[in-house]
Structure formats: C-alpha cells, structure tokens
Amino acid sequence: MDFLSSLATLTIHWAALLFVFILFVALISVVVMYWVDTHQTTHTIRRNYPVVGRFRYLFEHLGEFFRQYFFAMDREELPFNRAERSWAYRAAKKVDTTIAFGSTRSLETPGDIFFLNCAFPTLDEDAAQPKEVCIGEYTAKIPYRTQSVVNISGMSFGALSKPAVQALSKGARKAGIWMNTGEGGLSPYHLEGGCDLVFQIGTAKYGVRNHEGHLDDAKLVSLAEHQNVRMFEIKMSQGAKPGKGGMLPGAKVTEEIAHTRGIPVGQDSNSPNGHTDIKSIDDLLNMVHHVRKVTSKPVGFKMVVGDLMFFEKMCELIHKKGIDYCPDFITIDSSDGGTGAAPQPLMDYVGMHLRESLPAVVNVVTAYGLRRYIKIIASGKLIVPGKAAWALSAGADFVVSARGFLFSLGCIQALQCNKNTCPTGITTHNPDLQRGLVAAEKSERVANYAEELLHGIGMIAHSCGVKEPRELNRSHVRIIENQSRSQLFSDVNPMPNIRPEYIDTVAFQDSAVSLEDRIQ
C-alpha cells in the first residue's frame, strides 16, 4: 500500500513538472512567434495579428477536409462530388451500389443528358458480351485485339507510388483491361501484374530517350519486345494542362524513378511544353509512322482538343500520305482531366470539354472516311456508368479513367497529389505512408471497380434496348434544354455521312490489302 501511495505521489509530481515544462515551452514559443510575426514584412495578416494570424493557414488547409466531410452536399463538391465518389468506393468494395428514395442529381439542368429507356428492354438471356475490337488492323504487323471497354488511363510511376502501380497492374490483369503507363516510362511494377500495357511517349520521351533527350529507336525496339506492351501512345497534351508538359517535384524523383525515366535524382522533372521533333501535323503523322515501323505495334496519339481544324487538316493529309501514316487511335482528353500537378490558369481556363470535343472529333474522322481505321478513346471524369455510357453513345470505342481507379485504390480526394504527402500512399514515395496501401488487397478493388463500371454501362445499354455497350448511339440520348424540353442528341449533333470524295478510297484499299498479304 505504501508502495502504491509512493508511486502515485511520484507520478503526480513528475506529471506536474512535465506540465509546467510544456507550459513554459509553449509560452516561449508564443513569445518567439510573436516577435517573428511583428518583425517580418512579408505577411500582412501575421504582422497585424501576430501568432493568431498563423491559424489562418491551418484552417485553410483543414478547410478542404471539413468541406468534404461536413459541409458539402452530395452533388456540390469538386472535382468529384460525394455521390460519384461513394459509388466508386462501393463498386470497388463490391458492396451494394443501390440508393433509395430518389436521385440527388438534378434532372433539369440545361446541357445535362439522360438516356431513353426502351419499351422492350434487353433481357438478361439476350444480352451479349462486348464485341472484340481490333486496333491497328490495317496498319500494324502486330495489331491489338481486345474486348475491354473500360481501361486505366495514363498515370506514371513517379506520380504514383510503387504499390499503387502494382495494384493497378494486377487489378487490370484480373479485369482483362489495359493499363496506360503514363509518360514516366515502363517500370518493373507495370510488368509485374501481367496486364496489357499502352506505353505513353511524352514530350520528354522518358524511357525511350537518349542522353540528348531525343527518341531512341533501340529503346523502342526493346520495349516492343515485351508482349504485354500492346500499343504506343504519343502524348501531345492532356486535359488538365494543355500546352504544359508533365511536372514531377524533385522530392518525388527517387533513385528508382530517376533510373526509369533516365533523369537525375532529386531534381524537378518538368517535361517540355511539346515534342521538340513534332511541330506540325506532318511531323506528327511521320512520328506515328516511324514508331509503328520500329515497333510493329499500333500507334496513336492523345490530346485535349483546342482546334477542331487540326483534325480536318490531319484527315486531309492522311489521304495524301496514305494509310501507313494514319494513327490507329486517338485519345480525346477533356479540359476537366486530372493530374498530379498543373498550373491553375491552364487547369481552369484552357481546352475543350469532352462533351463538345468528343462528338466533334468523331464527326470529322467519320466524314473523311477514316472511322474504320482510327479508333476513338474517351477520357475525362468518366468514373460512373452514366458518363461512360454517354461517351460510347457519342462515338467512342473505349473509355479510360485515371481518377476513378484512384478512388478504387482508396483515394480520399485529399488534393495532395502535387506533394509527397498523400495520406493514402497512392501519390507519395514516403514509405510510412505507402505502408497503408497493400497492393494485393487493392488489386481486387481495382478489378471490382472495372467490372462494376462495365456492368453499370451494360444496365444502361440494356435499358435502351441494345445488347451490349458499344451498340449505344446518339439516338439513345436526349439533351436537356430547360425544365420542360429536351432534344435528341442525334438531332442536335447528327453523325455525318462520309464525304463523296472519300468513299472507297483506292489508295487505302491497296494499302490494306498489301498489309494483309505481308501479315499472312
């Protein structure tokens, strides 16, 4: 008893001393901060309101999280509202994705769309799996055939952590979809999962560059030897930062990432605004032809649309140069696309939205008789079935998503991608933060999300009376004009006929036949 009494007395004594010490340190800290704040000349708030003014930065930082969890309504928050994120989370976890009592989405907003249900919807026994699509059928010696509809968009190793890339690669394999490497090069973790890969050639040509930063054909050949690498995508621009190359802070350029990209360790990795060897449409088509000739695999390009005449001129030039210079696919990115880091002026004000650019590009390619040769891939906030189904109805052959799959990994939209402090371990190279992201577990969620997204698109397609997602077209969609009126998408933006001068182009037919002979 005496021992316990002595222990209690000693504990209270030391606790009191510790409290006094902490109070003393806190008082000294306040005095130091007060002196610093009143004597600095950079920050007005801190100078006028010493010490207290510092809380402004804390509240500003915490505001992102409080708005997300306490103040924003289900459909208010940007860039992705709670309703969309919740659907993605539930889909990834393979739990109930139904809702009750009615939609929280406004069904009267001008410009929004809705699908037209059929009086005789497709029954489950009549439904079909997505048909196989062949990319590079007329141009590549090794074309790519796939049934996938939903795929993983470009996110590079460096912007993403090792376990994030591992989880995405393994999940893509399980779901039978492809994964785009992003512009950061091909890492062992992309190959580890065994999924189909699209290698992206960015403006800095990471992974396929020589010491001067130019395209290295030997490295292209080496990459093409990987059976998993199915296609090559030349990245001209992306939606979040058109006119600006990739930006990776030096804090995220580890030794491994530097080796993968072929750059110095610890230095900011800022890609050029554009390709130094692609300064015209002719240069672009020549590059497509060159990469395809070196790799024997399909080659296309990615861009956010800013000038529709670009596609008119490109199609005219393809007819002059021949099918061997035709891109096998075009990835259309939206101006509201995402990225790990981008200047706000570009993110907020530059580029066309997918809602306008996708059907416009499809129209041009169709009118010039090139639709059978060029596949269209849609990208830009297509994380829920309704938005993805709209892209297919507008004319896309495939849908790709980056941020949707980030949500499947557990992203909480903390908006820390441009720093090395991502709390979920997805976009950080801090081992302590990465520890929470278990690739084996998250790969299951990646596959679940892909499958549930496709299932949701399929439900919409069946409701519209078609058997599979790619049978959706513009006649299945109406665009809201006001609270009491809407118009058919096919009336507002009809699919054009092929221009007479481009019907049955002889040069293209000859090229296609000769290629088939070569393949056989």
UniProtKB/TrEMBL annotation:
Transmembrane domains' residue ranges: 12-36
Keywords recorded for this protein, A-Z: Membrane, Transmembrane, Transmembrane helix
Keyword Transmembrane helix: yes
Pfam families (alphabetical): Glu_synthase
GO BP annotations, alphabetical order: glutamate biosynthetic process
GO molecular function, one term: glutamate synthase activity
Domain of life: Bacteria
Glutamate synthase domain ranges (all copies): 135-466
Family affiliation: Belongs to the glutamate synthase family.
Name of protein: Glutamate synthase
Organism: Marinomonas profundimaris
